[in-house]
Amino acid sequence: MGKATRIVVTGATGFLGKHLVEQLRAGGQPLRLLCRTGSAVAGAEVVRGDVTSAEDVNGALEGAGEVYHLAGLVSRDPKDAGRLYRVHIEGTRNVCEAALRHGVEKVVAVSSSGTIAVSREPSVHDEHSGYKHDVVGEWPYYLSKMFAEKLALAYARERRLPVVIANPSLLLGPGDERGSSTGDVSLFLRGELLAMPAGGVNFVDARDVAQGLIAAMRAGRPGERYLMGGVNWSVRKLVEALSELSGVAKPKLELPAGLAAWGARLLRGAAPWIGQKYQGPDEATVRMAALYWYCDSSKARAELGFQAQDPIETLRDTIADLWAPGAGAGSAAGA
Fold first, then answer.
1. pTM, 2 dp
2. Whether residue 276 has pLDDT greater than 50
3. Strand duo 225-228 + 7-10: pairing
4. pLDDT recorded at residue 18
5. What is the Cα–Cα distance from 157 to 155, expressed in whole angstroms?
6. How many angstroms separate the CA atoms of 197 and 49, rounded?
């Protein structure tokens, strides 16, 4: 990539984007960030714009050699379906078209492990797994991510665009100012996780994924996907680790997978009768937690040198960040 004249990053103000920008700045190449909002960033050119605008994206990619496409929207609300499709699908289309127009050397597009690595039983999935429309297709976030991923791979296959897909699992670690990824940990720390779901999760440090994206730019094969995950843990094991590290008591009630949605509705409906406002997870969150999001990152380790750090250190840093002054996790145990 020695001929690259400029690195462009979309979604630079997000949780993963900030870690990526921090690591890229150390490389010394010209850095341009396409952002809807946000303040100036030292060592980078900030361009105001939106990935849903073809004109904005085309202008931002002019003169680019490498493009990291991270722009996205995280929502579990079906009412946000239109916005999710515009940001993920149209945004990806705009980036791919502009990359072709300007002769970009390589694009790394960030998707989600949830497009392929999720099931109703504790199975571990790799890049050969098919899209899980039957498992998560009812949620616009994952459905839009699937379509965006398919679109990017079609550009690689049919139009020879050198694009690589990164599929990170649940991102944890410090720096999630919006709570879009660490929100469920925050929920636990506030004592609002009232029952233990029966599913399983794979989580990974956002700082490790940022390094993985840079490695994908250097060594990733165009048209290929790379799962970037850490450990596969049951929700019980994750909650027990969070409890041990934080001192917050774990919930005593267990919620069988088949009763996940019913249990969430029951807890929400019962709250007013006991004089409380329900602050726990919504039905979609509970149902997602009853699934198994297990993945195998062997391909990324073998081809990119991807490494995930000690999960306990990631959880410790996540808790410390959420309990930092002004973070809003709000637990006396963290004072």
1. 0.91
2. no
3. unpaired
4. 96
5. 6
6. 40
- Spatial neighbors of 225 by CB under 8 A, at least 6 apart, are 111, 116, 127, 149, 153, 165, 166, 167
Q: What is the DSSP string of 47-92?
A: EE--TT-HHHHHHHTTT-SEEEE--------GGGHHHHHIIIIIHH
Each domain of the chain, given as residue ranges in start order, spans 7-174+202-232+294-309
| Pair of tokens at residue 199 | 């599913």
Residue recorded with tokens 């969430």: 264
Tell me the mean pLDDT in the region 153-169. 98
Share of the chain above pLDDT 90, in %: 76
* Integer Cα distance of 203 and 313 in angstroms: 12
Per DSSP, 295 falls in state: B
Calculate the average pLDDT of the chain.
90
What Rg value do the Cα atoms of the chain yield, rounded? 20
Return the amino acid letter for 285: T
The whole-angstrom separation of Cα 293 and Cα 139 is: 15
Enter the CATH code of domain 7-174+202-232+294-309.
3.40.50.720
d(CA 16, CA 317): 15
Name the DSSP letter for residue 29.
S
* Identity of the residue numbered 8: V
